[in-house]
Structure to design on (334 residues):
């Protein structure tokens, strides 16, 4: 623990990365196809630690608060009681994190330790974790053959098989648009899930593993899964392969509400609706036309005095002057 304590002293003045459900788990694809000997909550703990990695900083040290650990692994636990040192949630989460020190995974038939130290002390709310040298190349400096997803999608997956299969599906569909299909042998899936000696009958494997995980993944994550059993044997009776199809779910369209002040015309007045402003403008125009017409009629129909009468000349026809109303009509036509 001395190494972690020294590392913590070096890092204590630096802000730790805030844990959020949209934090990304970024890992080499070999971590996805590796063989894990963990239960569901231990697997969640490991993926949560990976989501805390700052890819711009190659430090082996990551930090996370105890409250974020408990809330992630047990989202339905009551905050006050579960965060107490004496609570069962606190003690169980501590056990999950400390167990990672002794946990290894199989990559290409080689055993790899994942965590070298965990610093979990009762007098601090911060847990400090140190990755092993074995696991560093699969987390940092990734340029190709990697997959990333939001950590929050794992919360509602109720079994470790659902988590492992979700990662497997994401690996095949990562950065691909539309439907993505491929065939995989049943034996390869069994090996990846570390169930070589379990669910030997396909019907049980299908019901308990494939269908169960499919329902959870389709309901709670960002992808939709379909699969079909393939019987590539001479007698056509034994399922040997599975055809998987992954579809990325469409993101919901964001509806933009335009504020009333943007839907306005000059002099519409504060807070007035766009349509009301248009109606008011039209009404004002009609009133102006009626007023002009009224004035014109009054002018045309007003009696003229004798001095205003035109002088009649026998040789020339009287000249008709266009009325004011006709002038206005010609203006409105243009």
């Amino acid at each position: 623990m001395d190494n972690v304590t020294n590392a913590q002293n070096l890092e204590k003045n630096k802000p730790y990365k805030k844990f959020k459900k949209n934090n990304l788990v970024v890992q080499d694809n070999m971590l996805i196809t590796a063989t894990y000997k963990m239960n569901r909550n231990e697997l969640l703990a490991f993926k949560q630690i990976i989501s805390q990695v700052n890819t711009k900083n190659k430090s082996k040290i990551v930090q996370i608060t105890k409250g974020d650990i408990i809330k992630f692994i047990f989202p339905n636990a009551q905050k006050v009681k579960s965060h107490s040192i004496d609570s069962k949630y606190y003690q169980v989460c501590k056990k999950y994190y400390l167990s990672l020190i002794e946990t290894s995974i199989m990559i290409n038939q080689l055993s790899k330790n994942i965590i070298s130290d965990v610093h979990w002390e009762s007098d601090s709310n911060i847990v400090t974790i140190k990755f092993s040298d074995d696991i560093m190349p699969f987390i940092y400096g990734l340029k190709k053959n990697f997959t990333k997803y939001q950590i929050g999608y794992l919360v509602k997956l109720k079994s470790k098989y659902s988590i492992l299969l979700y990662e497997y599906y994401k690996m095949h569909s990562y950065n691909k648009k539309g439907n993505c299909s491929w065939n995989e042998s049943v034996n390869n899936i069994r090996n990846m899930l570390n169930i070589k000696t379990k669910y030997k009958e396909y019907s049980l494997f299908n019901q308990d593993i494939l269908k169960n995980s499919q329902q959870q993944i389709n309901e709670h994550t960002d992808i939709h899964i379909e699969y079909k059993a393939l019987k590539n044997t001479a007698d056509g009776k034994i399922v040997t392969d599975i055809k998987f199809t992954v579809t990325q779910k469409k993101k919901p369209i964001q509806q933009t509400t335009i504020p009333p002040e943007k839907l306005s015309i000059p002099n519409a007045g504060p807070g007035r609706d766009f349509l009301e402003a248009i109606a008011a403008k039209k009404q004002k125009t009609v009133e102006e036309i009626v007023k002009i017409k009224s004035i014109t009629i009054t002018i045309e129909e007003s009696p003229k005095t004798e001095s205003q009468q035109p002088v009649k000349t026998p040789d020339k026809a009287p000249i008709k002057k266009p009325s004011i109303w006709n002038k206005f009509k010609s203006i409105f036509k243009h």
